[in-house]
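# step 3/5: fold
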Amino acid sequence: MRMTTRGLLAVALVAVTTAFAIAPPARAGDLLLTAAKPDRLYVIDTATRSVRSEFRIPNAGAHITTIVPSPDGKVAYVLVNRMESISGINLKTGREVFRADLSVPGERVKDFCAFTITPDGKELIVYELPTKLLPNEYRVEEPRFAVFRTNAGLKAKSIRAYSAPRRLHLMLMRPSGKSFYAIGVDLYEYDVASGKLLNTRGIQKWDLVAHSQPDLLAFWPVTEPTGVFTSPVISDATAGGITAMKTGLMSLDVVSGALDFADFEDTSALIFSTVLAPDRKFAYGVYSTLTKIDIEHHSLAQRVPLDHTFYSVNIATDGHEIYMGGAMCDVAFYDPQTLQKRANLKLPGCGDQSLASLRVIPAR
């Protein structure tokens, strides 16, 4: 039986319509935030694996580190200017809408990577390390937490301050907005309104039996997408009279406050940062390798070498892809099941990301 041209077109139309009907919906994707020296902030569309926006941060001082997105994902607050300024960049227009220059005449103030934002987006809490610049000496002052209003414009000044411990390098806000965590030699919790110390728990003060004091490198304030911050920790563990260096995973649930430590391997590879998958079954860590950690069995699940070192790691909101950045000028996209590379995006200008955070926010 011969089919007419009109009949062929009808069949083709039905086939195309059916294909669209059964095809899975396209992923909305996430947006990735990263930054690179000397003064660039990038917004990456993960659905297309392309740079959506490239913004210049004014007076960045050729130095960019921690990135903290606003809760609504509209502004990125970035530590710049050799850790002496925080710049708020509108992610739609690229305009600087907030600026806190921490140093003032006679006092140099550094923020060593640690600041956070309240859940309502109204206040930034910044870890300040002040030094008096006297005619004949530099006098180290006591550290403090300084609070800034995010609507204060380009000449923001702190509205209140309270004392802080030394040797902090990361801060995380609790979703309730009543308190925040500060991570350093120990884990501290502070009241947002008063600055009162509410609790101190183990890092140095941990109580793991037969383990030495642990060491960790926690500069990347990533809790997305699970609300759990994770970091590799290394310590000496003794069992049966034999002492061996162990790598474990520290997990802090910023919602419940649960804090856990668990070894997963004899130390064999350096891991800088980790992220927990949305299903909480695996965590992923990076440096010169990509490491997959089995959370349930506290074991090494898989490890693959990387093209070069990456400092920071994050994961898609739905867990379908791993993102890696830092240490050079590219962002890598990996399969969380196989740990195979899917794509690599080179940033315009090839600036060094260094300690810049790699943050995930919802696509808008």
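# step 4/5: annotate
Residues 5-22 form the longest helix (18 residues).
# step 5/5: archive (pending)
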